[in-house]
Amino acid sequence: MNFKDLVLKTRSYRRFDELCKVDLKTLESFINLARLSASGANRQPLKYVIFNSGEDCERVFPYLSWAGYLSDWHGPEKGERPSAYIMILGDKSVTEIFGVDFGIAAQSIMLGATEAGFGGCMIQSIKREELRNEFEIPEKYEVLLVLAIGKPIENVVIDEIKDNDVKYWRDSNKTHHVPKRSLKEIIIKL
Amino acid sequence: MNFKDLVLKTRSYRRFDELCKVDLKTLESFINLARLSASGANRQPLKYVIFNSGEDCERVFPYLSWAGYLSDWHGPEKGERPSAYIMILGDKSVTEIFGVDFGIAAQSIMLGATEAGFGGCMIQSIKREELRNEFEIPEKYEVLLVLAIGKPIENVVIDEIKDNDVKYWRDSNKTHHVPKRSLKEIIIKL
């Protein structure tokens, strides 16, 4: 797959075949891609936690918010939930600023997941303190992102943006539509 | 190229064949990869500025800091400088928070550059106010990153980290060594 196709296929998926598991070695191989990616001043302040048992995934799920723009949908039903999560933590004993690092890492992981036949969603909307309590996450770690990973069962398409409306939406076939700004809009001249 | 090889090849390069130009269409194709990547709440708050003329690149160069750990090297000499830059701006009229977005975008761009036979470096250490004055960048844009892009002429290798020392260094053959933390160190259990 050329890289543009890989990027195109790496959509944010929120419904999965939950029976399709993602094994530890596979998840580690995704994190290895993040490890081998750039890091500001090479500090490498990120740590990763893997959840891929049914029990652990069930513990993570309640602390995540799904698809803010779909107000009548509160996240995937049982059977359509992710079968794994990778939590990205910022280790404050290394630096207090995680700037560009966690975006780089998350993108490497999600692209790697696509290549391996999986997909998922980067989730920033997290009940952080409750999640910290649930897993007794030490204070030295900042919860930056949770990546939901599984076997996607939804169709996601990119649309041209209209009237500056960035809200994604679902049509009657449950196809998920994501309006994207044009190249013309985002490349500016000074 | 499989994705792991693409990631491995996407090192931070700081010396280039400056005679090898990067044309506008190619740079736009890299930005298109960022455009097609994930964005927090799909807000897409990033804007991009392309510099690829010799004159513009010469204007950008003085405002960038290169390789902080190489204290006796003040950046690439003439002839070894990047032949293009992509500046990533955060449009504060869209949101004030650029969180995960600019890392995602930068990683997509740099991976795309590698696939196209180029390479470069994400530069965060920028004399932001001077650069803003030089190009009259409106206040509504936050200068997030400058990506230097060109035809790399340096050899960069990944080493195992020793004694927690993250500083990259150059050997007598000018090979650039980057110590990376082990997978064992960065995957933690709670």
For this entry, give a set of tags.
28% helix; four-stranded antiparallel β-sheet; 190 residues; three-stranded mixed β-sheet; 6 helices; homodimer; alpha+beta; globular
Short characterization:
Two copies of one chain form a homodimer. By secondary structure, chain A is α+β, with helices and mostly antiparallel strands.
Give the arrangement of secondary structure elements.
The structure is a homodimer of 190-residue chains.
Chain A: H1 3-9, H2 24-35, E1 46-51, H3 54-60, E2 84-91, H4 101-115, E3 119-123, H5 128-135, E4 141-150, E5 156-160, E6 169-170, E7 176-180, H6 183-186
Parallel strand pairs in A: 5-7
Antiparallel strand pairs in A: 1-2, 2-4, 3-4, 6-7
Task: Describe this entry's structure for a reader.
Two copies of one chain form a homodimer. The first copy, chain A, has 190 residues and is of the alpha+beta class. Chain A contains six helices and seven strands; from the N terminus they run H-H-E-H-E-H-E-H-E-E-E-E-H. In chain A, strand 6 (169-170) and strand 7 form a beta hairpin. In chain A, helix 2 (24-35) crosses helix 4. Chain A is globular. The model of chain A has no long low-confidence stretch (mean pLDDT 97). At the A-B interface, helix 1, helix 2, strand 1, helix 4 and strand 7 of A face helix 1, helix 2, strand 1, helix 4 and strand 7 of B.
